[in-house]
Amino acid sequence: MKQNADKWKQFEEILQSKDIHNPDEIASSYIQVIDDLSFARTFFPTSVTYKYLNELSAKVHQAIYKNKKEKKGRIINFWKIELPELFFYSRRQLFISFFVFMLAALIGAISAANDESFVRLILGDSYVNLTLENIKNGHPLAIYASEAPLYAFLMIVINNIKVALFTYASGILISLGSILMIFYNGVMVGAFQYFFFQYGALQESLLTIWLHGTIEISVCIIAGCAGIVMGNSILFPETYTRVQSFSNGAKQGLKIVIGTIPFFVIAAFIEGFVTRHSRTSYFLDVSLIILSLTLIIGYFLIYPYILNKKELNKIKTTT
Q: Which pTM value belongs to this model?
């Protein structure tokens, strides 16, 4: 740091200049920053210096390539590289979102167990009354077959994306808005599951709800992570100004939300076309739930870790 602090500061001054006339100077700076980043990543991967250099190299890269024409594979690269890398660096925010949801679900279940009116408060009288009637008729979750499949699919997609965007946008309230949205959804799920347990329909509810809920609830948690990423950028600007940090955090959070859209579509398709037939085969239900869970864990947790490890190995071999 003592040897390079002045050099890094000079790089930042070059980047902050609105009129850059010497592209060679920028290119040279980029090479030097990448070299320093490689060294820091190899020997001090958890240091503040590494984080600073990582951000600085991204700024230099943007300055070089901001006017470059996008390649045809830009969309593929987004899903294959950019989004998984973003999830790796946002894993703490994702854990916070998951923890808040699970805690809220527990609170929801305990509240429903100790207050009979709590479920009606959370889910509404009409839903509770209809479900009680369905339980008496031997089909507790008949409500999922009450709408035409295509109509249900479209309405679910639109509603879930709206909720995800609102959860993300709520993060502007220094993360608290997103956390409250996650908390409310967790309480609702906990109360919902206890309601079916109370009336002896827990097994059927688990197999039916989590056919689509495995993906749907997971990406709702991920949308909460997006809001926390944006909110934390306001709280913890680090080496950026607060405005610059917020701009970066908002963009990163938006990318995360965009990344949830295909998964919301998958969940809505399952809910609209598959969930209504959930009693056909318990084996198929369990298999689909396991497959959905594997998809979520594999793409959002395991793959980003593998990708980052490969990147580290590449840097070690070049240094």
A: 0.77
